[in-house]
Design a protein that fits this description.
The complex is a heterotrimer of chains A (303), B (280) and C (264).
Chain A (H helix, E strand, L loop, with lengths): L5 E12 L4 E13 L4 E5 L6 H8 L7 E6 L2 E2 L9 E4 L11 H11 L4 H14 L15 H13 L5 E5 L7 H16 L3 E6 L2 H5 L4 E6 L2 E7 H5 L14 H13 L14 H33 L1
Parallel strand pairs in A: 3-8, 3-9, 6-7, 7-8
Antiparallel strand pairs in A: 1-2, 1-4, 4-5, 9-10
Chain B lengths: L2 H20 L2 H15 L12 H35 L2 H6 L5 H42 L12 H28 L3 H26 L5 H12 L22 H26 L5
Chain C lengths: L1 H4 L2 H36 L6 H8 L1 H28 L3 H14 L4 H22 L8 H25 L4 H14 L3 H12 L7 H12 L3 H14 L8 H14 L11
Classes of the chains: A alpha/beta (303), B mainly alpha (280), C mainly alpha (264).
């Protein structure tokens, strides 16, 4: 059996609060495994222990009890982090560096060999779609761009495991969609992705498996389809049906021993609708521009 | 992971820390104020102190270096540390294969490099002004003023700068140590200033110790003198620059340097002791 | 039992104690490095009469003084001394000079300029206070000069405790005798002392010889100058030519036969 990307066993983390040292339990007896080449979602409301769990996985915090391994290596070891890329929530970077300089800096911190550094930097910048803005100072970036350049620094040393903490928080739906595309591309390249979020709609279609945390405890874990599917129900989406036809269908269902539970109008999610509309507008705009360019070219040519 | 790789990481972190610090308004305005202050020492001209004017200029320049250098050393180190903590830049770095000690050492070196810059600028400006005034005074008094040799030993200006820089190193390391267990920038700055004052004055307790009777008070004073480093040791400005009876021996300078290095490293290691346990 | 040991408060106390212990050990270990250097540095920082200073400065400034701003504070007080001097406030001037030199006795500058103010300027002010040079009788003027000179001498004597080898301080005393008190005999004594100190200006010895001549001690002056001329280096500042001139003048006055005259 292949070594899991992350193995958390019976992990508990207590924080001492105040001068008398009252204990606050952030993570409570958590056991979890994230398989290789999987997109895994760590879900939960604010304060449910997601960030603490991630910090323990990254070796930034010592667990009170229990253990955590990355590809079989204890996560508190610095060497375990060679195979990990991390994007924190709402990251801030040195504002005076350009996007490319920033990614290069992180590449050198991770000891990417000099001969490969240019290629590594360019390819991750390309992957996150920042090639055009890479020469600009980080201080001029929008939130979505910061998130993408953050992703580039997390990926620059080609880690096998990528951890994203609230990658879509505060990013507009377009940005979120772009990040989701990058995550899918990572999976295609054989990487493992662990992402935490409280914005469920944005990662619903993305994760292979999810775990739901509440007050530091694991509430549910499994494949997204398994968790949300109504196993005893099916939906038929029908178009152009007359009232008579519908009555006949209902009668047939009943005759076959079924039961019509509810009838709904199918709807797109607002996210999907928004993305569809924006894409249409973008294509129309691009076509118009192209046409305008061609007509001016033509005029120039005739002059 | 090899020592060379480790060194590269420390150098990288120090480099960005330094660049970030140099771009801070605080550093630039403090540097400007200090330079302006040192330059304003030319107002001593109006008193017509003769060659004594050079002493006034030197005292003034050394005082500015000591005073503003101490402020900068504490505030810049604290700010550079907490900026990274609050903005989560530290998180992105420590999530890489970077040791916490490397991170601390990088932060320290960045701040120390900043202090080197500051010290160099101040000593250069001071030397320039001294050179100009010395020439003017010699022109006024005639060549006989130089009969016993030059009025100023310029090497000493830089020697004083170097020794102060060593002290700023201890101070920055102390600040880093305080920052490693405190939660806010302000608390770190206040506590570090208290430490500075204690270190600057601990010699009084030590002097008093020799005259005290045996007992717990004597024991307390003895401990106090041992726990805090002696900053007064670096306060040699009055014994440099002018041709006084005694020149500061090289062995003393070496001892001071060693003392500064030992304490700097010790406080960084103590900072690491707290930082290891700290939630980033 | 284990839970008590794990208690955060106890853990924190233990950490503080560990740090203190580490610093204590470090202090002990670095003593051999630090102590000899500190001896040298401390020797260059003469003790201050703290009580005297605290009375005039206040505790806040005393901490600054002890913390390393001693020289610069003395400088600023000296500038204030200058304004007091401009206002001709002699009681305050006295106090300020004493304060500055107590605060930082190292620079000769404070001692010399302070003594000049006391010996040269204050008598003028006092004579003016009593009605001016025309109204105050000569005898009274001399009393005032003497009183002020003695105060200046006291200041220079204190300075000599700190700088026993400083030629300029001896010179200053000689000059007060010479210029203010017109006392050639005492002036000669102090110019001689000055000339015997390291780094003394060459003119100190020449003036001593001149003062001997003025007192009619020509033979003594002649012997001294011959000795001086032999010992002086060939520096342009030593002005050996001038000394030779004086020697030949004295030889004329003393009617020294040609064959016995000095030949360098």
């Amino acid at each position: 059996m292949k070594t899991p990307a992350i193995r958390i066993s019976n992990l508990t983390k207590d924080f001492a609060v105040g001068i008398r040292g009252m204990k606050l339990r952030a993570v409570d007896a958590l056991s979890l495994e994230v398989g290789d080449n999987e997109i895994f979602g760590l879900l939960g409301p604010n304060g449910s222990g997601k960030s603490t769990t991630i910090k323990i996985i990254l070796g930034l915090l010592e667990p009170s009890t229990g253990s955590c391994e990355i590809y079989g290596e204890p996560s508190r070891r610095v060497s375990a982090r060679r195979s990990v890329g991390f994007l924190p929530e709402a990251p801030y970077f040195y504002r005076y560096l350009s996007g490319r300089e920033l990614v290069r800096y992180y590449a050198r911190l991770c000891a990417v060999p000099r001969s490969e550094i240019d290629w590594a930097v360019d390819s991750v910048i390309d992957l996150v779609g920042m090639s055009e803005a890479a020469h600009r100072r980080v201080g001029t970036y929008s939130k979505g761009m910061l998130q993408r350049i953050g992703l580039a620094q997390a990926l620059v040393h080609d880690p096998q495991l990528v951890i994203l903490d609230e990658p879509t928080a505060g990013v507009d739906p377009l940005g979120s969609a772009a990040i989701a595309d990058i995550v899918r591309e990572l999976k295609r390249r054989g990487k493992t992705v662990l992402l935490s979020s409280h914005l469920l709609a944005q990662i619903e279609g993305l994760c292979d498996r999810v775990a739901i945390l509440h007050r530091g405890q694991l509430v549910k874990e499994g494949r997204v389809d398994d968790l949300v599917e109504e196993k005893d129900a099916e939906a038929l989406v029908v178009q152009g049906l007359t009232p008579e036809g519908r009555a006949a269908v209902e009668a047939t269902i009943q005759a076959q021993g079924g039961h019509l539970a509810r009838v709904e109008k199918p709807r797109l999610s607002l996210d999907a609708y928004f993305l569809k509309e924006v894409h249409e507008q973008e294509s129309a705009y691009a076509a118009k521009n192209k046409a305008a360019d061609e007509s001016t070219d033509g005029k120039d040519g005739s002059a | 992971m090899s020592a060379a790789e480790s060194f590269t990481r420390v150098r990288l972190i120090a480099g960005t820390t330094f660049l970030e610090a140099v771009r801070q308004k605080f550093f630039n305005s403090l540097l400007l104020i200090s330079v302006a202050l040192v330059a304003s020492s030319t107002f001593f001209q109006q008193f017509d102190f003769g060659a004594g004017e050079l002493k006034f200029i030197t005292d003034f320049g050394f005082g500015a270096l000591f005073f503003f250098g101490s402020i900068l050393s504490i505030t810049a180190t604290a700010q550079l540390f907490f900026n990274e903590m609050e903005n989560r830049t530290a998180l992105t770095m420590l999530a890489k294969p970077v040791y916490k000690l490397e991170f601390l050492a990088g932060k320290f070196l960045g701040a120390h490099l900043l202090m080197l810059c500051f010290t160099l600028v101040i000593t250069l400006v001071l030397s320039g002004i001294l050179y100009w005034r010395e020439a003017a005074i010699v022109a006024q008094l005639g060549a006989e003023a130089l009969a016993d040799g030059p009025l100023i030993r310029y090497g000493d200006v830089f020697l004083f700068g170097f020794l102060q820089w060593m002290k700023f190193g201890i101070l920055a390391a102390i600040t880093l140590f305080v920052a490693s267990f405190s939660n806010t920038n302000l608390y770190t700055i206040v506590v570090s200033f208290f430490m500075l004052i204690i270190c600057q004055l601990q010699y009084i307790a030590r002097d008093a110790y020799s005259g005290m009777e045996a007992g717990w008070e004597r024991f307390f004073v003895f401990g106090l003198g041992l726990i805090f480093p002696n900053f007064q040791l670096f306060n040699v400005g009055d014994q440099l620059v002018f041709d006084v009876e005694q020149v500061l021996p090289a062995t003393v300078v070496l001892r001071m340097t060693a003392y500064g290095l030992i304490y700097t490293i010790a406080f960084i290691l103590l900072a690491q002791l707290n930082f290891r346990r700290r939630e980033i | 039992m284990q839970s008590i040991l794990q208690h955060p408060l106890l853990q924190r106390t233990l950490r503080v104690l560990t740090v203190l212990l580490a610093l204590l050990l470090l202090g002990l270990l670095t003593r051999p490095v630090e102590a000899p250097a500190w001896q040298v540095v401390k020797a260059g920082q003469p003790e201050m009469n703290l009580e005297a200073i605290e009375g005039s400065l206040g505790q806040g400034l005393v901490i600054g003084v002890l913390g390393g701003f001693r020289a610069i504070l003395a400088d600023f007080l000296w500038i204030r001394t200058n304004t007091v001097w401009e206002r001709k406030d002699r009681a305050k001037l006295d106090a300020m000079i004493r304060l500055v030199t107590t605060l930082d006795p190292r620079p000769e500058f404070f001692w010399i300029n302070g003594s000049r103010m006391i010996a040269y300027d204050v008598p003028n002010w006092r004579i003016r206070e009593e009605g001016g040079y025309d109204a105050v009788p000569e005898a009274r003027q001399q009393v005032l000069d003497l009183e002020q000179a003695e105060q200046a001498f006291k200041l220079i004597d204190t300075a000599l405790d700190f700088h026993p080898e400083n030629a300029r301080l001896y010179l200053e005393k000689g000059q007060i005798y010479l210029n203010r008190l017109k006392d050639d005999a005492n002036a000669a004594e102090w110019f001689l002392k000055a000339s015997q100190k390291p780094g003394a200006p060459f003119f100190a010895a020449r003036i001593y010889a001149e003062l001997l001549r003025r007192q009619g001690k020509n033979a003594e002056a002649y012997a001294y100058l011959k000795e001086l001329h032999r010992e002086l280096p060939d520096s342009p500042f030593a002005q050996k030519g001038v000394i030779l001139e004086r020697i030949s003048e004295l030889e004329d006055e003393l009617k020294i036969p040609v064959w016995e005259r000095y030949r360098p």
